[in-house]
Amino acid sequence: MPCRVEGSSYATEIFGYKTQGWRRVFCTAGYILSCGALLLLFYWRPEWDVWANCIRCSLEEADIVLLRTTDEFQRYTQKKVTWIDLSTLALPFGSNSDGPLVADKDSVINRAVMKPQLKIRCIQVQKIRYIWDFSVKEFKKVGSLEDSNTCHSIHHKFGAGLTREEQKIRQLVCGPNAIEVEIRPIWKLLFKEILNPFYVFQAFTLTLWLSQGYIEYSVAIIILSIISVGLTVYDLRQQSTKLHDLVEEHNKVQVTVCTKSEGCKELESCYLVPGDMLLLDGKKLSLPCDAVLIDGSCIVNEGMLTGESVPVTKTPLPLVESLMPWKTHSMEDYRRHVLFCGTEVIQTKATGRGPARAVVLQTGFNTAKGDLVRSILYPKPVNFKLYRDAFKFIIGLSVIGVFGLIYTVCVFVSHGKPVADVVTMALLLLTAAVPPAIPAALTTGTVYAQRRLKKKIFCISPQRINICGQINLVCFDKTGTLTEDGLDLWGIIPSEGSRFQKIHKFPSSTPLPWGPVCGAMASCHSLVVLDKKIQGDPLDLKMFEAIAKCLSTALGTVLHLPSKQIPWKRRTRKAPVEGIAILHQFPFSSGLQRMSVVSQKIGEEQYDLYMKGAPEIVSSFCRQDTVPVNFLKELKTYTSQGFRVIALAHKALNLGKDVDVSNLEREEAESGLVFLGLLVMENRLKQETKPVIRELAAARIRSVMVTGDNLQTAVTVARNAGMIHTGSKVILIEAKEPEGSAPASIAWRLAEDCKANTAAPCVSTARDETCNYHFAMNGKSYQVITKYFYNLLPKILVNATVFARMSPGQKSSLVEEFQKLEVGGVGGWMDVSPSSDSHGFQALKMAHAGISLSEQEASVASPFTSQIPNIQCVPELIREGRAALVASFAVVKYLTLYGLIQFVGTALLFWVSIFGNYQYLIQDVIITLLVCLTMSLTEAYPKLAPYRPPGQLISPPLLLSIILNVCFTIAMQTCGFLLVKQQPWYVALASQSGAQSTVLSYEDTTLWPLSSINCIIVAFVFSKGKPFRKPIYTNYANLSKAFKLNCCSCLFQQFVCTPVIWRIYVLLMLLVTFCVSFFTEDVILQNKHLWLLIKAWFGYQSNSQHRKWQRMLQSDPSWPPVNAKDFEAKSTDEIYINPTYEHSNE
């Protein structure tokens, strides 16, 4: 059985092979005898190379491993197993015995050393090194501290640093701490490009044409190919250089490292290894590795990774005696202790024990920045049928070419031609059937679309533009995407004596009296002073500014800074306190949905803990006698109006004098709090939101909201935005995990504002995308459903519209589940995720077309970055995607017809002669090249159609279009060829073979204008305008240039003189062909209503997963359940655990 390699950008299976000497000898002989053709074949198919040279064996014995991706592409890669020799190092005493080589007994290095040779087997996959673990017989990733380490073990094993000997061992095994992106040499890029099967086939074709004297056309193609290859190589070289320059400056940072034997010293960051102890002395530092903070605190800027330059506070890993791994102990919130590579340390705060300290967690490409760079170097292939169908298309044309080859042999043999002429002419017709420009044509529409998008949307993955043409599902974040970026403080509802008091609105002429509420608003935040300016989370800024303005006596607030306290300037003698010092912070995280601070009033001994966060979470930490009885009702009153509500709580801490508050246990400190009240924030819809959602709905593109906000608030915003139509029901789903003997349960409850609505539920169908019920749930319920009710998940997703309180891992899992609904079907469910959430880049990477609305420079995590700060970019991208997709299909159809038109004309002329060199040159360069360049210049239609363009090349309408037009071409050219022979003035001219600049015959004079103008006819017929592109006449400037050049080229051609009446016959044949072709294409093949009738007549139903579920649910009278409760089945054999969710926190 194959093993799996973890840590690559996709799941990979690994197989072991051993090289056989006699096999290698035979293969070498094959390389020589085939003149390198076998070597080229093995270059294209590395698995064949391994199978031919090696025999299968266990991974433990293998010297070559073959890796195969587990996705639908099943791509193979071969890697050589190498050895790391540790015997050259001055190893510590006892390393040759059974003792551990490194102090950390759990380290994979100890289990990978072959003793007594002191060697380690390793492979390198996508810049990550794997070493062979003899204990489990698997390759394990190296370059990271083991996740099994507990909080206590990280402090005690690595808190004092490593020994010098252990550093050397780890440096040799893990490799340098550098994200090295090679600037690939031009010759390497050139060879990789020209060894593409397309260019190899083109080289074969050009060799054949040059041997026959087709010098002008061959030179033209060579020049075009050189330009194409040169531009591609230049672009790849530029990308490689930019990426190299982006990461190179961080590879040689000076850092201070402490070792057990030599104390602290400065060294280059490339020598860092996992387990090293870093000193953070307060200087600004761009982190060269991932490190876990063990002492002190830091403020960092993670804009490099997230696209949001909001200062983030990092706290030390607690020193606790817990047997749980440190990540598990910290749950989703473990990131608050981690300093990620590529982020900038702005400020540090020392403790009494000295400067802030951090233990190196991961180095090189194992780091967060390294992972992002690897995602650029090794992007996940896009599963889009267009590119796979194009390959099948070329295979089909090759088969036609083979038939042409057989036909040519028969014709030339019957004419008694020499064998050399038979072979060359047969190969000539074979190459004529396969236009070499088809692969390039697929990108033509994309290139122009990217150029048009550049003014509004920046794209780092151009091939995804075509995929945007198939989008029919859009996932939106709420805050900053559908609603305004900033929150305005609307009011506060204080609580006193377990009762809500009168609301205090902002701004107000009545001052808010000093008390714990003011203390919470003034201190419970993560704001910092940078460059004499208060910076931080926008919500914290609004809260802080509001409390400053409303206090009748301005309170000086001391901010939490590393070495000094900067009080707020305005003070009066009437201030109730001199200031508040923020001594310790438990930062906010989307997983915990809360934050807390420990503060102290200046001049007083008492400590205070203030908490703010999601009302449901904060209330659970409060003494229930302090929470108002009508808490949920009051909360719902405001969330149902679309307000964002934050709860505040307080607790007086009796810690005594000179206590180190940094050692406080969060769980102990955040207990028994007093509920202070609700902070109500107003978050208005952007004015562009409703029109865009309406436009998407009219185009039958479904909109889904995925947010971290309150469920009721999210439902209200969805209603206001138009995602949930007036009169539609909202069914709230609440799922609970098993408790004791009670199994997991899922409850379906009708939202209260929908209970008066008695409309019968429906399921959206292919013709009617609207439905009058929508599911809404929070992240916790989604988690339970994926774990215990996975069989219900597809049914729910068909009509789920609102997902609230979603964590980053849940967001990316949801996007993947939406994508699964299309497995094996026709069409596609595509996801666009415009997100201002700094943690949302996981979902952006997972989606087919992720859009970032960040104002920062384009994030490497997002394929698209919009310069439009609202969701107007979504329909714009879909419009351009549809236009690019239709243009790509049109150009492919045209090139196919052009090749077959030329194929038919050449095949007919083989009975007497062939086209002349200049005639081929005009057809191939002046007509075809210009048409390909101008067809795709037609812009996108401004209005989105209520259906998507076809997403498959191999589909009945497209195949019928090509087949029928080929039939029209054969009929027209055959008629011309036969009729010209019947004319009284016809004289058979001497047949010619080989390459001629000009070939004069009546057949040639008839067939060349028929075939050339037929190419222009099909170009016009295939250049369809509405509903996805503007009408063809809007592209008149470019088309007129092409038409003039074509007319001029015809004037310079030499033809045999024919009577005027025959020329009229030729024009009539072309006119009839145009009318028939246009009618067939526009009235029959492009008639959507006709195809729907045909599908209904034959009972055809879509095979896509979401359509199947829709039909199934439509016939289910018990769906959707309302005011019902279901329990997990006792048998758990078929329970599915979603791997994306399970590993979202790792």
From TrEMBL:
Domain P-type ATPase A: 252-376
Membrane topology: Multi-pass membrane protein
EC class name: translocase
Keyword field contains Signal: no
Localisation per UniProt entry: Membrane
Start and end residues of each Cation-transporting P-type ATPase N-terminal domain: 155-204
Catalytically driven reaction(s): ATP + H2O = ADP + phosphate + H(+)
SUPFAM superfamilies hit by this protein: Calcium ATPase, transduction domain A, Calcium ATPase, transmembrane domain M, HAD-like, Metal cation-transporting ATPase, ATP-binding domain N
A family per Pfam: Cation_ATPase_N
Example of a GO biological process term: intracellular calcium ion homeostasis
Parts of the chain that traverse the membrane: 22-44, 217-236, 393-414, 426-448, 895-914, 920-937, 958-980, 1060-1079
GO cellular component: late endosome membrane
EC number: 7.2.2.-
Keywords: ATP-binding, Magnesium, Membrane, Metal-binding, Nucleotide-binding, Translocase, Transmembrane, Transmembrane helix
Family annotation (PANTHER family): CATION-TRANSPORTING ATPASE 13A5-RELATED (PTHR45630:SF4), CATION-TRANSPORTING ATPASE-RELATED (PTHR45630)
Family label: Belongs to the cation transport ATPase (P-type) (TC 3.A.3) family. Type V subfamily.
Protein's name in the database: Cation-transporting ATPase
Organism: Bubo bubo (Eurasian eagle-owl)
Taxonomic lineage of the native organism: Eukaryota, Metazoa, Chordata, Craniata, Vertebrata
